[in-house]
Write the structure tokens for this entry.
Amino acid sequence: MKKVICLVAATIWCYYTPTFAQENAKAELDASQEKVPKKLEGIKSSDLSEAAEEVKKAVSNEEKKSANDKVMVKSATSKALDQRLRLATSLGLVRSPEAAKGTYAAGGGADVSLLWDFVKNPGYSLLASLRYAPFRVDAEIEGRNYTGVVEGYHLGLLYMPAIFTKDLILVAGAELGYLLVSLDASEKFVTSKDDSKDELQYSVVTGIEWRIAKKISIGPRIYYGFGNIQVGQVGASFSFLF
């Protein structure tokens, strides 16, 4: 009888023990699921909105930073040219050249210059210049009359300090020039061009510039060249700063 009772008890224990374990696990799972909504209930909708706004601000700041970086790269690239490159031109009168051989007569003249501001300080600037200055001449050489053109190619160095005010600038400098002289005989019976020649010239430059706008200047300019052909030019200059 005892054996039968023990066998029945063991059977009941083996049957109900897994069931109790499953019920306990299910109860613990239900309890944990109930806690999640309660935790979410503690978070206000305003907190969620603020979090979303913070995310938007962070993204916007990153986009602005990226755009600023692009602008900085572009500025660094263009900085080398910014307010350093100038284009200038002048119109005026050319003094009749004096030459070692023959006599010359000239009238009006013009030039165009490209200038590079390689030293730029608040009180002064140093500029390298390349100037092209052609003018027409009438010449008499050994009793023959000629007409032609003198083309001047000049490399120069200019010192430009501000005087009195920052908008009034003194111009002083020197140039080394190459003159290409092309003369045609005026007489019908002379067909040769035997008086075409090249000359070197050393010039001094002076003048004043008045800045009438941020990138525009005007003023008088004087050039005088020394060499086998001496040429003087007085005119009004106009320059544009890039």
Observations:
- The chain has two domains: 2-78, 85-241.
- The CA atoms of residues 21 and 27 lie 10 Å apart.
- Confidence is low (pLDDT under 50) at residues 189-194.
- The two ends are 118 Å apart (CA to CA).
